[in-house]
Design brief:
26 strands; globular
Amino acid sequence: MFRNALRAACLSLTLALVVPTVAAAQGVQVPPIVYKERTLANGLKVFTSLDRSTPNVSVQVWYGVGSKDDPNGRSGFAHLFEHMMFKATKDMPAESIDRFTEDVGGINNASTWDDFTNYYEVVPANHLQRLLWVESQRMGSLVVDEANFKSERDVVKEELRQRVLADPYGRLFALMLPQATYAKHPYRRPGIGSIEELDAATLDDVRAFHQAYYRPDNAALIVVGNFDEAELAAWVDKYYAALKKPAAPVRRVTAVEPARKGPGVYDGYGPNVPLPAVAITWLGARAADADAPALKVLDAILSAGKSSRLYDALVYDKQIAAQIYSNADLPQQPGMVVVGAVMASGHTLAEGETALLAQVAKLRDAAPTPEELEEAKNELIASTLRERETLEGRGFALGYALQVEGDAARANTALADLQAVTGADVQRVAVKYLADNRRMTIRYRPESERSAKAPATPPARKVASVKYTGPVVALAPEAAREPPPPIADPIAPTLPTPAERTLPNGLRVIVARSSDLPLVTADLTVRTGAWADPTGLAGAAGLTADMLSEGTKTRSAREVAREIEALGATLGAGAASDSTSVTLNVTPDKLAPAMAIMADVARNPAFAPEELERQRQLALDGLQVAYQEPGSVAAFVAAPVVFGGTPFGHPATGAPASIARIQTDDLVKLHATYFRPDNAVMVLTGDITAEDGFALASQVFGGWEKPASRLPDQPNVKADARPRAVAVDMPGTGQAAVTVTGPAIARDDPAYYPGLVANAVLGGGYSARLNQEIRIKRGLSYGAGSALSARRTTGVFAARAQTKNESAAQVLDLIRAELDRLATQPAGPEELKARKSVLIGGFGRQLATTGGLADILGELALNGVPLGEIGAYTGKVEAIDAAQVQTFAARVLAPDKASVIVVGDAKAFEAELKTRAANLEVIPIDQLDVESPTLRKPAK
């Protein structure tokens, strides 16, 4: 029914060229999203935004249906249906969408929010017509059958287990926060649903939901990227104009949340809560309300960055919280404002509640300072710029403004609205919304603290299914299917051309102009990471990185935070196994002062003892949380399993015992030894010329003196070739994390590119083999994949999936079987072509952002690879054949050479694992020591 295009005269067209006033912020111009808009006769809204600088295009469809529209007794339904939309249509078998996106070098995804569900793709622009056809198929002829329904329901249940039940704070944020905040409005129902209500759903329920909401008059098509405008308009008419608008109006939520009459308390509990948490919520405004901009600025003042009020008071000054957060959650209908904290070890929920309320009271009692106001606005504007670096980010801005605020043009006026907010406005909305007597306090504690008198969670209310009598679509016989449109000629990408110089002190400087968007990323990479941790001091390099921004010889920690955040910049540092990086992102007009702070932080850290104690406690509290997450524990265990007894044989984060041992002198020595210009690379990317970049690097880093002492060599690590099988027992945890891992290759190995392609075939994406077998065919995991990390001297490989505890052994079997198949059966031509496209497309999208390009250039420099590799990458990937992939897999990825790690509730899988690994070591979580090659704490 899509082959006959309707004449333009049959369409109700409202064409508008929208170029609003550009918002300005202290010298930086924020480019508007220039777009055109029209509405088809069937009600479909169409937005197009042309960008000739890219070889790609983003296609998005936004539907006005979200979690608030879930039927009674069917929470999680909109989200479940999001999954269903990736299955079959009348003319496309299940999983075809990945063939049209990922397999040609693109991406696809979707998300379900309270008010909308959005589907989005980024593909090479010559595939635009096909993607328009694909989305019209999903809108007009989706196959909703029993097999697809059941498989995706299983996947959603695994997603719930992973994101909610296995995460220490998943229950708090996903379930309890909305339930406690709203008394009547369906915003109170968790978007991800519950296993009981998902199990209660029937095929009739799903079909009725689709018929009610997935219709052209409840949707918007958004296309951003490189296209011919006349062609695009004709394709939209061809594929969408014939879709019929149902006679019945779209059902809308009309519930109104009643005003609170007094304060309330909600007590929540979880089985894996390492540190108690508190959240305080108030009912807020809707997104389109005149008060919304002031509430967003209030939110930024409370929690955006280390100079924010909550961080400064609770984390830095009082040291009673490990983490703080706030959010002005302002959806389509009135939403909420929340402040909260995860308490630090030894501190109580009462302390946290008192401190949070004190900061809210300060905003009610007095307006923020002009400096705070300006900092908050700069941070919000810079965040908007970062969103608009990508095609999909620009499309999201238009779609979100349309669906939540009711007008896509709000994407371009929002910054001006923020700029107009005054200190008095912030104080006014704090008084209006955040009254003490209208708060709800959520206290989240371990299950062991639940009182015997505390009410149990009531069982899910049973609701009868609907009876669906509407049309049903089935997959047409292959010979009767409409073929997809042809692929056009590709558009050649314009690759950045990096330039480089080495300063007299040995600092290598690389500059690549990559964007006219006013953003610059500056990245300083030091060629030393966790491998340099002294014996017994695992995590020292990581703690050194954490301490860099916690005060210099001329700036206190608070001054560093205030100065960098006042510029709207982000400045962070971190250590990996091979390197340490200090990364700055800022608008070009503020680059010089921001880089001066960056240089001071990198070159002159004070390592003040009191600051070390703060960071030590934050690190310990962070590890306490991570040790309750199966996936995190599996990652910690991998390093000693693969590299035990070597400098790579511990996680870069360290361990609780080693973090406690690290002293100031240890950090000073590490910094003095390795932070030197001849051991570092400075990369500048974005809206900056090569000459400006070299001049600025020379100005701020030219005085950095090269020490006379010789730089220590990085050790050439050889992993223990004996594979191990380790199970870490975490009783009560909601899922098991299954990992198969082993040593891999160095970056200079001739088999580097065969390795990349082999990993892409195995687990590099949604349609790769592991995800096909574990998620798509069997619904055993929310996602399965693999990674190949090639370092300077050695590397590591890992294949991973999380699943319900009872399925751990089955998932292990599937991973091993795919590793074996990769080595014994050559990949077919079509599969190989698709997986190469995944690599090439991903590389191109990474090049398109300032941060992504900086990462690529820094990685090349770190590993001694010529910068011309940017231009050679595509050809080298394309040159790999099936035999090279098979040879690499047999040499590096053989399952009998790899170790096995399973972390979860061992009573559910230990017996089965022992039938597959006679040498299985079972280690209780409270006996785990990731510093030790044995993985066990010494006996007392």
